Amino acid sequence: MNATAELDPHQIATDGEIAAINLESARRGAWARFSQDPRLPGVAEAVVDKEHLAAQFLGDLDALDRLDTLAAQFARVDCSFRAAIVETEVASAAHRFSDARGHLARAAQLGAASEMVERLLLTIDQACGIDLEAVLAARRRIGTSGRLEDLVPLGAVLADLERFAEADTVYRQALSSYEDVSPIPLAWVSFQLGMLWGELVAAPDPNLAALWYRRAITYLPNYVKARVHLAEIYASRDQTREAEALLLPALLSRDPEVRWRLADVLMAQKRFDEAGTQLDAARIGFDELVDKHLFAFADHAAEFYAGSGNDCRRALELARRNVANRPTRRAVKQAHAIATIADKAAIASEGSEAASRPAAVDGRELPGGGRGRDGTRHALRGERHEVAFRDCL
Q: What is the C-alpha to C-alpha distance for residues 321 and 22, in angstroms, rounded to an integer?
């Protein structure tokens, strides 16, 4: 599939560093208002929005802990559908989709507007890869608004369905339709385009992906995920110094993938002691996150343990848990790739006897015993649940 490498002209936006400062100020302000009176209309919901943004764009993964605290505190003082909606969004952010569906059903029983319930249910279905053709039809209807926040989820489901050219068109339409000055939505769409061309298409175009990741970082310099993905492209080209320079500022975040990728870069530079330090820190970080928020990080932790983390058994266990929680196409592909790696490791250590044992994902035998084509970095890659700002981890 051909893709134009010509990027749309930059759109005028607020300085990204200023936007990040403003987001942190707004987040703290929302918490202050919640502390004064959590029952005020829109106050708890504002905290959810700001914490989601801090996690998604700034790598502030402590936001998930704060969101759990918010949901518990709000449920103690509010018995209406509002508390159930907040619990739905908090559970969705942590990828506890079964819990989210339960909270959403309770919200509907308590009188939540049907439009709100349907919107959240659509987001959950899309995140779980359930009936994507129906999700696509709904997203097309919503996307007729022409608004960026409605077009990006449409682009995401098109990408999930491997309709990549149309996804590219929709994402670009989202950029061209944007008329505000906040750089965060522009960075968001640019990152999605980087993911599309760098990891989702059948024949990735790392040059085009790098252009979009750089665009995302230009809009929002603190965008941790964009830095990590661009650093991976640089590292694959042996541009390790450039990759290191991208990752160092992101060490301030709580995302262990930053330290993991930095360890790989340092290893390539033969700075083995420093690499070991970063790899140990990454392992501790993933362990802590998986212990607290298993489903939110099962896929990323599985990718880590299947690679630099060097624990195929744990990687496969996490991949299976992820498939059981959200059986998307990418989750299944990742589990297949990890099962292949685990099979080969077993063959190497146990000989031909291991070759006769099929690998399985979520209790189901994989075709060919989980062997065959090697799992690639793209197959191993965890998913980014970012179909909407309110469900964007």
A: 37
